[in-house]
Amino acid sequence: MLAPPAYAKPLPTLNDENRPFWQGAREGKLRMQRCAGCGHIRFPISHVCPDCLSYEFAWTDLSGRGEVFAYIVYHQLYNKAFAADLPYNVALVQLEEGPRMYSNIVGCSNDAVKVGDLLEVMFDPVTPEITIPKFRLAAR
What is the pTM of this model? Predict the structure, then answer.
């Protein structure tokens, strides 16, 4: 039996700061930092809260729900690792808990995506170590 082809797209480098985020994704949870001082949920990962400047935080699981804040559909190839995906979308997702993150909306045509559409997270296990959070349209 042949082994599946190696994942050829860029992958994050795991380190002590981002490991809880990626571990959460492997477990099927969207996990981000919550400030212990003011409760602000922050993303991207940071050692200090941008609201109150506290260094104290805890990792917290989010609902995984959000909406399309903005998106673009790429038709031109900028990285040959994504050639088979053309055209593909990149969306800025407004999470229910406050932060925004970039991801892809999967499971529908690019034409079906509209600003304001409700989303729910799903997880794409691309390697044994890395599972990428992506989003799909949620039922209204």
Answer: 0.92
Q: Tell me the backbone φ, ψ of residue 25, rounded to 5 degrees.
A: -60, -40
How far apart are alpha carbons 110 and 14 in whole angstroms? Answer: 30
What is the CB-side half-sphere exposure of residue 95 using CA atoms within 13 A? 22
| Three-class DSSP category at 59 | strand
pLDDT digits (tens, 9 = 90+) for 90-113: 999 999 999 999 999 999 999 999
- Give the CA count within 13 Å in the CB-facing half-sphere of 43: 21
Closest CA to 9 of 96, 78, 79: 79
